């Protein structure tokens, strides 16, 4: 039988408990066999600031998921030289997976509502089911505006509302406010050790 694989894409700058909860609830509620976190390489949509090096974001994602059963991390987008497009990543998973797999692409509601700006987004329903988890500040009603082909493959997963974002975590580090219990302990230590997020963010030209 095909292995049900959840793909959790994101910038993960840094990874936080909102991401982990989204992945775990999707796994549990949809009976997925495994979750693969895929930190983005050069995200086409994050044009407002310079993002942290891929290797640091990859390392934090590894630290957050180390020892968690059924969770793993992929380097595919980090290693790709071209910008990361979800369709390419999904095709690669389908082609290169050792066993037959059925893909479930997991996003928060905010990300999914922007799906019409993604490269070749109408191809997505041919590659995967789309899973969207609830996120504070984004109304489920917004999904009605998406094309029928997208809505057909959509699965809504309600999760405990966790009003945290990487943006907020970066701001907290910069301002010297704590991030304990918002990110896994090892991620908190990594941020401290590597002195991440201490400087004002650099706008991307
Ligand atoms: P940033 O503030 O830098 O955009 P973020 O917290 O939104 O960071 P991303 O890496 O952009 O994190 O998000 C990766 C995925 O996780 C997206 O699909 C996003 O919608 C989802 N996500 C992030 N935080 C939450 C949360 N608190 N609850 C539900 N989904 C979330
Ligand atoms: Mg985001």
Describe the structure.
It is a single chain. The protein has helices at residues 17-30, 54-65, 76-79, 86-96, 109-112, 124-127, 148-152, 166-174, 185-193, and strands at 3-10, 34-39, 71-73, 101-108, 128-133, 154-157. The protein has 205 residues and is α/β, with parallel strands linked by helices. The chain has a six-stranded parallel β-sheet. Helix 2 runs antiparallel to helix 9 (185-193). It has one domain: HUPs (Rossmann fold, 3-Layer(aba) Sandwich). The radius of gyration is 16 Å and the shape is globular. The longest helix has 14 residues, at 17-30. Helix content is 35%, strand content 17%. Bound molecules: adenosine-5'-triphosphate and magnesium ion. Adenosine-5'-triphosphate (ATP) binds at residues 10-13, 18-19, 22, 107-108, 110-111, 133, 135, 162, 164-167.
Secondary structure: number of strands: 6
Radius of gyration: 16 Å
Shape: globular
What strand line-up does the widest sheet have? 3-2-1-4-5-6
Ions and ligands: adenosine-5'-triphosphate, magnesium ion
Percent of residues in helices = 25-40%
Helical run tally:
9
Major sheet characteristics? 6 strands, parallel
Task: State the low-pLDDT regions, or none.
Answer: none
In CATH, the homologous superfamily goes by the name HUPs
Order of helices and strands: EHEHEHHEHHEHEHH
């Amino acid at each position: 039988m095909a292995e049900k694989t959840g793909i959790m894409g994101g910038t993960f700058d840094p990874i936080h408990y909102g991401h982990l909860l989204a992945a775990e609830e999707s796994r549990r509620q949809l009976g997925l066999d495994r979750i693969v976190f895929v930190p983005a390489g050069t995200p086409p949509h994050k044009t407002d600031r310079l993002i942290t090096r891929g290797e640091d974001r990859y390392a934090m994602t590894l630290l957050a998921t180390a020892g968690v059963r059924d969770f793993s991390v992929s380097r595919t987008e980090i290693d790709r030289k071209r910008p990361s497009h979800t369709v390419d990543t999904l095709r690669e998973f389908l082609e290169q997976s050792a066993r037959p797999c059925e893909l479930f692409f997991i996003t928060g509601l905010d990300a999914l509502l922007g799906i019409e700006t993604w490269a070749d987004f109408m191809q997505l329903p041919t590659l995967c089911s789309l899973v969207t988890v609830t996120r504070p500040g984004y109304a489920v009603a917004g999904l009605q505006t998406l094309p029928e082909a997208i809505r057909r493959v959509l699965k809504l997963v309600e999760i405990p509302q966790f009003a945290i974002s990487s943006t907020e975590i970066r701001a907290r580090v910069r301002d010297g406010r704590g991030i304990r219990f918002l990110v896994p302990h090892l991620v908190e230590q990594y941020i401290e050790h590597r002195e991440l997020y201490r400087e004002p963010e650099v706008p991307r030209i």
